[in-house]
Amino acid sequence: AVFLAAIMAQVSAQSCGDGKCDSPENSCTCAKDCGKCEGVVSSQVCRAYACVENQCTIYTVAGCCGNNVCESKESYGNCPVDCLPTSISISVIGPEEKSFGRGDEIILKIKVTADERPIISAKVSAKGFFGETELFNDGKHDDGSGSDNIYANKISIDPKIAEGSYDIFMKGEFMKIDGNTTFQIEVNPKLDVETNAKSNYR
User: Fold this and answer.
1) DSSP per-residue codes, 78-146
2) Are the C-beta atoms of residues 128 and 167 closer than 8 Å to each other?
């Protein structure tokens, strides 16, 4: 192969520069006549041309998002086509209030990200004194547009629940990766304003 390449280079050198790309000239042995073997391949991500043993060859570009290899400095956050997520983060954005009365309705609302990338298709649930409920990102559960990374749903506080502090456990699942967080609310007895007012005038 080396001997053949040397012969081709010698023959090519004799005619290279005459303005004609004749055999055995090619873009690697005579760029003057045949054009340079360089640049990216049209319609192919992370593919480019280069000379290998005097032949113009297509190769996969290293360090390029889209080459099907999760390389250094790449993550699901900046290159989801090459990398899988490694972690999920759940941020509670609602309710803003932390104190509620018996019988109140609460809108649970969270944001989900994977490696700092917004996730719109996670499976999210909340678990606590109310049992377990799913949070949705469909624009129908006080969650926003349905195409963002905000998930929400309503829960109700039992009118007969004991007053005190209650933990709510939030869990998110996406591409076989789990993430969770816990926050706390206070449940207080609901004041009967009418009864209280009558007692003050007795």
Assistant:
1) T-TTT-----EEEEEEE-S--EEETT-EEEEEEEEEETTEE-SS-EEEEEETTEEEEEB-SSSSSSSSS
2) yes
d(CA 107, CA 156): 9
Structure tokens at 136: 């949705």
Confidence grade of residue 13 (pLDDT, cut at 50, 70, 90): low
Per-residue exposure over 92-130, b if at least 16 CB sit within 10 Å of its own CB, e if not: beebeeeebebebebebbbbbbbbeeebeebebbbebeb
Could you tell me if residue 35 is left (phi over 0), alpha (psi between -120 and 50 degrees) or otherwise beta?
Answer: left
Amino acid at 99: S
Query: Quick one: what percent of the chain has pLDDT higher than 90?
Result: 76
* Confidence (pLDDT) at 194: 47
Q: What is the DSSP letter of 1?
A: -
C-alpha 141/C-alpha 151 separation (Å) is: 8
Output the six-digit token pair for 150: 């905000």
Find out whether 146 and 138 touch, Cβ atoms under 8 Å: yes
How far, in Å, CA of 79 to CA of 101, rounded? 46
**Which pLDDT score, from 0 to 100, does residue 92 have?**
96
